[in-house]
Queue: 2 jobs
Job 1
Amino acid sequence: MQVANNMAVSIHYTLTNDAGEVLDSSIGQDTLVYLHGTGNIISGLESAITGKVVGDKFNVRIAPENAYGEIHDDRVQVISRDMFEGIDDIQVGMQFHADVSQGPGVVTVVSVNDNDITIDGNHPLAGMALTFDVEVVNVRPATAEEMAHGHIHGDGCHH
């Protein structure tokens, strides 16, 4: 059975950057299970998996525009320390959920200077080409409920 839209797909993957550093991996853990064709994974990876079958192993390098996008300078801004009410110790690298220009997202503190805190609303992997080593572990038709909800239920479902 080939991977196509409205299929429940289970994969094992290892994600690396161009320096060869492992950024994420499912090896030694549960497979990643997702509903194909609904944008639950980055578009470049979804395209690469389309048409594959169980047992297929492949490596794909995905350009930033088909991964987490380019870096947008307008998503980096300086805000007042007052915006972090109740947080006394603000450190570079801390991440916070916030409403950013494109909706709810995560911002990362990139510098702390007295009362000025610089935050970056870009995805931490924005601007990076990503390489995935992928093994297709399982493919099955999604249930009507899974298609209605836009994600997979059962094994690997954390909702």
Job 2
Amino acid sequence: MATYKIDPDHSDVMFKVKHLMISTVTGIFKKFDATLEVNEQDLSDAKVTFEADVDSVDTKNEQRDTHLKSDDFFNAEQYPKLTFKSTSIKNSGDNEFILTGDFTIRDVTKSIDLKVEYNGSTKDPWGQERMGFEVSGKINRKEYGLKWSAVTEAGGLVVADDVKLAMNVEMVKQA
């Protein structure tokens, strides 16, 4: 099997969540790691593992980031990583796949499906083989124990339950 590691300088791990139900807040994880193991050119046997350092969450607001690291949300002190481990991959046509796996936040693991767009492979100027992907999905944060909630005077949620996941990923083949 060929092993690929994520290139953090050419990859992004993001999430988006509605705020006050009228706008969207985007957050990123600055520290993450991923491995792809694959034999087949068509990616039919791909195995993916991923982890992000919860303490590296960044929403461009220090007060909000501190709150996200607290027990109301991620509880970074007790659960420093969020992880994903694939269990299957299915080709859905036109270089698109459904990647299914176990996603863990805090102490809760649930199976999720991620949409994967394969953008192709190439050799970089230094002779390294690279593969590019765009990954998207959605989770309900409350199912993972990210329980904080507040309601506005008008009855709307301050933070939505659904969280969109979006990753732009470049993987580098290891020697």
